[in-house]
Every structure is written in structure tokens, then in C-alpha cells.
Amino acid sequence: MFKKGGEKVEKGTLLVGEPMGLFIAQEKGEFEDVSGYTMALAGAEFNVAVGMRRLGHRVGYFTKLGNDPFGKRVIKMMKAENISTELIRFAEDHFTGFMLKSKVEKGDPDIFYFRRNSAASTLNAGDIEELDFNGYDAIHMTGITPALSESAREAVAALLEKTQENGMCFTFDPNLRPQLWGDQKVMCDYMNDIAGKSDMFLPGISEARILTGLEEPERIADYYLTKGAKTIIIKLGSVGAYYASGNENGYAEGFKVDQVVDTVGAGDGFAAGVLTGFREGLSMKEAVRRGNAVGAIQVMSIGDNDGLPTIQELNRFMSGQKDWRTGGSL
Predict the structure, then answer these.
(1) Residue 119: enclosing H or E segment and its boundaries?
(2) Which Pfam families match (predicted)?
(3) Do residues 223 and 212 touch, judged by C-beta distance below 8 A?
(4) Model pTM?
(5) CA end-to-end span of the chain, whole Å?
(6) Burial category of 210 from C-beta neighbours within 10 Å (exposed 0-12, middle 13-18, buried 19 and up)
(7) Which pLDDT does position 34 carry in this prediction?
(8) How far apart are CA 245 and CA 199, in angstroms?
(9) How much is the CA Rg of the chain, to the nearest whole Å?
(10) pLDDT at res. 220
């Protein structure tokens, strides 16, 4: 997948999703009681894009934004991270979504979304027909985008068709958002259908249990391989991940984290690590192990993507170097 025989990879990965404004609470408490927020940028695919770019890989982004301060900030921040924005479109009559995130000392923070009828929810099949895929050989997205609207699901169907026509790799993280679907059976049926059409499917273990009703990673992987997925990688939290393809399977160990600051974005960091590992020709186990490392690094920071590492930082972290951020000695 991505790279064969050590040949140079010149094309990039196109991320498709909804980048959003993010307000992070600066004090604990209910949102209505918080008086101060720090502004940042969030969105699962945006986090993956940042992670891949910091690890030295070429990435682009496709979405629709509102012609508003949030949309302009998205473009500015993507350009600052050297993420290509040439395919992004603006929807004049819709706004860019944003969200609030609570401050917590442990566990998952509360999230409140302002995204109904957002610009990204207007994505449709016609938008995909207009895309120029030159320069990209892979597409990564999550299950959040098809949950936004019926037209967004039509866009995903068109996107899958285009990837097949162009011989591109399609990787998919379900990133379940039941509150956006309403009907859990509809959500599960849809996700399982897309998973079966994916070159790589990247669920968390709790998501996979919801989608399949199965418990063991091995049985879950067999279920998706039978449905047509070429590679399945199941995130198991701090203990690591289980991976399987047609002729290879196993576990990759996780990395110890002394203090978890914020779990949001860990799965996105994992995806960035795995996808760049495959692009560089690493073995499946080493690519998954890299994903585990980036995911571990991500939970050490407050923001959704602020703490994502450079390749130098990642290599030092994976080798056990204590001062891996600064490059100090072991």
C-alpha cells in the first residue's frame, strides 16, 4: 500500500472532512459558567493532516468553508502548517462550524458543537466531480463527514468511485458520532459498508464492538476482512493495537504515558503515524507501532493537534529518549 520496492513517493494524501473553530475552556466548569476560552482549530481530518505534514509528508485538504472569520482562520492555519488548500471551496450562504471543549484534569472533555447546516454539511457529489486528483494517490477521511447530511453521504459515494477510477488508496476511520446520526442501526450499516470498500479501516476497539457486536480484536478483524477491507487496524488504547491483512496479523505494543492531559485527537495522531509509516515502506507492525507512539504523544497535550511531533521528536520518543522534545541525552 502506498509504496513498493523503496521507490520515491512524490504524490500526497488528500484529507476530506470538516475543519472547525475550537474554543478550549481555560477553567473547569459548565460551558455557560466559563469566562475564558483559547481559540484553536480542530477536526479529525485536520489533525491527521497536521500530523502527517509534521512527519514530512505532502498533504492537501478538501472541504467547504464559510466566508467568515473561522473559514479564513482555517485557511491561514493550514498554510502555516504547509497543508495545500487549493481544493478548498467556500459556501457563501453557510458558516464554518465551531465547537467548545471543556477543561478536565483526566478523562474525556465535554464537547459542544455548532455545526448544523455548516458549509461542510453542503458537500455533495457535484463537488467531487469538480476535483482534480492530480498530485494525490491516497484519500483519508473519517465517518464524521458522511454523518453531516444526506448530500455529504452522496459526496462520499462519489469520492469512493473516483478513488477506484484513479487507482488511489482509500483509508477510513469511523470516528463514530452517534449524536449526528440519530439512528444507531443506520450508522452501523453505513460504516460497515464503507469499511468493506476501504484499503485500510481504523476503528477503536469500543467503536468496533458497537459496529459488529463482537468482542475480540481477532474476530472483529476477520469480520471486516471477509467484508472486503484489505487491512484492518484496531486501536486498543494504551496497550497498543491489533492489525490484520490477508496474510499478516499481530499486535503492536503501546507506549507508556506518565500523565494523560487530553485524550482528544489521539486516534487522529495514531492515523497520522500509521499512514506515514506505510508511505515510508515500514513493515505493518512498525507502522502500527509508530501510530501508537504518535497517539501516546498526542494525549500529553491540551490541544487537538498542538502536540503532534516532528519526525525527529518522534524518533527520539520511540527510542526512549527522556528529553525527546528538546533532543537532550537519554
Answers:
(1) none
(2) PfkB
(3) yes
(4) 0.92
(5) 35
(6) middle
(7) 93
(8) 10
(9) 19
(10) 98
Predicted confidence at residue 304, as pLDDT, reads 75
CATH of 12-318, one of 3.40.1190.20, 1.20.1250.20, 3.30.420.40, 3.40.50.720: 3.40.1190.20
Cell numbers for 112, please give them. 459542544
Q: Report pLDDT for 130.
A: 85
The residues spanned by each domain of the chain are: 12-318
**Calpha distance 244→249 (Å, rounded):** 4
Q: Supply the pLDDT for residue 2.
A: 55
pLDDT of res. 263: 80
Give the residue ranges of the chain where pLDDT is below 50: 3-9, 330
Q: Which residues form the catalytic set? A: 268
Distance (Å) of CA 198 to CA 28, 94, 98, 147, 232: 40, 31, 29, 17, 9
Using one digit for the tens of pLDDT, what is the confidence trace for 190-229?
999 999 999 999 999 999 999 999 999 999 999 999 999 9
Give residue 328's pLDDT: 58
- Give which of 224, 222, 219 is closest to 199, Cα–Cα: 224
Q: Which three cell numbers stand for residue 221?
A: 478483524
Identify any residues that bridge with 83 across adjacent strands, giving them in sequence order: none
Handedness of CA 274, 20, 311, 38 (dihedral sign): negative
**Coil vs helix vs strand at 319:** coil
